[in-house]
Amino acid sequence: MAQNTPKRKIKDSVFTNLFQDKKYLLRLYKALHPEDSNVTEEDIKDVTIKHILVDADYNDLGFSIGGRLVILVESQSIWTLNIIIRALMYLIQTYHDFFKRTKQNLYGSKKVNMPKPELYVIFTGEKPKNPPDIISLSKDFFDGEKIAVDAEVKVLYQEDEGNIIGQYIIFCKVYNEQRKKYGQTKKAVTETIRICKNRNVLKEYLESKEQEVVDIMMTLFDDEQVLEAYAEDIKNNEARKTAKRNAITMLEKGRISVEEILTFFPELTSDDVKEIEKEVMQLV
């Protein structure tokens, strides 16, 4: 039977969905380069890295302007300097794809043409004290030493209703507030959309794709719950492994009997007890 529902990308989000539309991507570029008033949607090419093994974007957003600029943008809600390394890895892969696409010979004597890189992170979480405007590999990982390859990432965190980047940050802050209020519920999502539309924040986008935005955010709730459950399973498995090792040690030292294992280690099961008893008998 044919599937009528589009296949959702694993890493789909409001951020990636918003900037899949070149109309909004152009606004993002003009927020970064207000001096460049001549660029049109036709000048923009999507170069977001696609993962080979899964149907998902490998990085959040990559686009080029003609042959002169390549811009990579990541959206991040948790502060980490590791974004510098990830951005550098994305940039190298983007250049690899660019040279392959343009059929330029990196082993020839002729100097290749390449677009100038710009790296950005849009930070939507709780700001650290005195957040930097620029983070770099040299400064933040090697105490400012001169290194063979450096990468500078500009940090964008200002809430601003006057441009689409600032509006996206506001949207995320409103969402965080509503999630604290209503939890992982549809109410948190619909209230976020209502408040942002009233404030003229991403209003055009939210009005045209409201149901899609709700679906995306509810799917992300589901994904988070799966990950939380997976993390809890790992935690429980580690706890059981530790309990089994301790039970074996106590049995070997004669401090408890097999019948007392579940009393001292309630996280274990009767099957675990059988395995422990068998293992101890083999050691005797």
TrEMBL record:
Protein name: Transposase (putative) YhgA-like domain-containing protein
Gene source species: Parablautia intestinalis
